[in-house]
Automatic annotation (TrEMBL):
Full protein name: Uncharacterized protein
InterPro entries: CBASS_pafABC_assoc_protein (IPR051534), WCX_dom (IPR057727), WYL_dom (IPR026881)
Annotated WCX domain residues: 249-325
Species: Eubacterium cellulosolvens (strain ATCC 43171 / JCM 9499 / 6)
Origin: domain of life: Bacteria
Cross-referenced Pfam families: WCX, WYL
Residue stretches making up the WYL domain: 143-217
Length: 327
């Protein structure tokens, strides 16, 4: 092999070693780098190593040199992800109900390796398995892949849709006839993944849990114009959807104790306008989908939050409270 080719291979191996084996907190010392390179069949000369590192930096790599004991140490500074960023990604995967236990383990391992071998070890040691309600549908990746194809091509999608009975067995809706829908967006909400779809029959949006789908396929029929959303439209609908359960959209005025200001911001966004009306009280006008999930959310705060407009919802609130008391 020509000398130039050998030199290029050696430089690539140095980069590979530093990416995988070093970080700011643990630089790779000259002796260790030489040994590891030798184990890969690459000869690294300590006399020319600093010049080779200098050349790599000139080519755009960000390799730092520090003194460790009585020798030089090197580490790769510019990484695609920092340890905190990778930890956040791992926690998100752990929290996602729709990813099975086995898929979660594989996913976490892949994310951890993005930080190099030492960082991967740190991440694995700090993984907290806080989600114990993982679903079991191993077809989730295939479902997402097919739905993404449909969204990109603006095509309809079809699938079987199921619930679970008391024994955890699948019970297909519509006697296992395929649903055919017009995909609008895939939305992650409350630890689950949903397909937002346009319903021509009901002239509105419908939502389906992706982990409750079976045998997803892309259809040849194109979607209607109403199914093609802009990004900001998707974000707005997600805020209204309350865990993706359907319902009529309403402008609702809520009065609440000031201690719930953070709750309102968490649910409707930090830009939600609110005013103080009395000692310890605030009022905010929010747009929601009035659904069982909305009522469940509201009833968490009995005594600290109430509807003050519109009147029909006030009456419905009273009726629901009465039924709850009777039961």
């Amino acid at each position: 092999m020509a000398g130039g080719s050998l030199q290029r291979i050696k430089l690539l191996k140095i980069v590979e070693l530093l990416k995988q084996e070093s970080c700011k907190e643990a630089p790779l010392c000259t002796n260790d780098l030489i040994k590891k390179a030798a184990a890969m069949g690459i000869s690294v000369d300590r006399r020319t190593l600093s010049k080779e590192v200098e050349f790599l930096n000139e080519q755009g790599y960000d390799i730092k040199c520090v003194i460790v004991g009585h020798q030089r140490g090197y580490y790769f500074e510019n990484r695609d992800f920092s340890v905190p960023e990778l930890k956040i990604l791992i926690d998100a995967v752990q929290a996602a109900n729709f990813i099975t236990e086995e898929q979660t383990k594989q996913f976490v391992e892949k994310i951890a390796t993005l930080g190099g071998s030492r960082r991967a070890e740190i991440l694995r040691e700090n993984v907290v398995c806080f989600n114990t309600t993982k679903h079991t549908n191993a077809e989730i990746y295939k479902n997402v892949a097919e739905l993404e194809k449909a969204l990109l091509r603006h095509k309809q999608a079809s699938f079987y849709y199921f619930d679970r009975n008391e024994d955890g067995q699948k019970v297909y809706r519509k006697d296992k006839k395929r649903y055919v829908v017009e995909p609008m967006a895939l939305v992650f909400s409350e630890d689950n993944y949903y397909l937002m779809a346009w319903s021509s029959k009901y002239e509105g949006k419908t939502n389906y849990r992706v982990d409750r789908m079976d045998t997803v396929a892309v259809e040849e029929e194109p979607v209607s114009e109403k199914a093609i959303l802009e990004t900001e439209d998707i974000a707005t609908f997600r805020q209204q959807a309350f865990r993706m359960y359907g319902g009529e959209t309403e402008d609702v005025v809520l009065e609440f104790n000031e201690k719930l200001i953070g709750v309102i911001h968490d649910k409707f966004g930090e830009n939600t306008k609110m005013i103080r009306t009395a000692q310890g009280k605030c009022v905010a006008s929010v747009r929601v989908q009035v659904s069982p999930t909305f009522w469940g959310w509201l009833f968490q705060f009995v005594g600290d939050m109430r509807i003050i407009s519109p009147d029909p919802l006030i009456e419905e609130y009273k009726e629901r409270a009465k039924k709850a008391a009777e039961s």
